[in-house]
């Protein structure tokens, strides 16, 4: 499915690069593993190839899809009437999907709330993580410049 050198996004962890596909024996069972170097945390993750689909790992978004995401980010509506606990759960579910649009919506909505009032510590941490993951993916999209990334926010 993925090849060595592919840029990917791993939900909850951000963007990474597939560094190797290795065969390992664990508990007497041989399996192939994708070795992924995560960009934001500087850690290495190994995922069995049989679990790659269920992990929601996906290729990095392309520049064409990004234009639609930027439009939604800048012009989309936020649901501001939810209590923070419900909003936190909704946002966490969005982040877990690993979809760039869902992550961008979380960043957009929390940034809008932050402009009006202080976020609680849980939402502040969520915003920081979602923002970092979004930036890590944007940095890997072919054809995007650093100035375009900065103008996104």
TrEMBL record:
This is CarD family transcriptional regulator. Pfam families: CarD_C (PF21095), CarD_TRCF_RID (PF02559). Residues 1-111 form the CarD-like/TRCF RNAP-interacting domain. It comes from the Bacteria. GO terms for biological process: rRNA transcription. It comes from Mesobacillus foraminis.
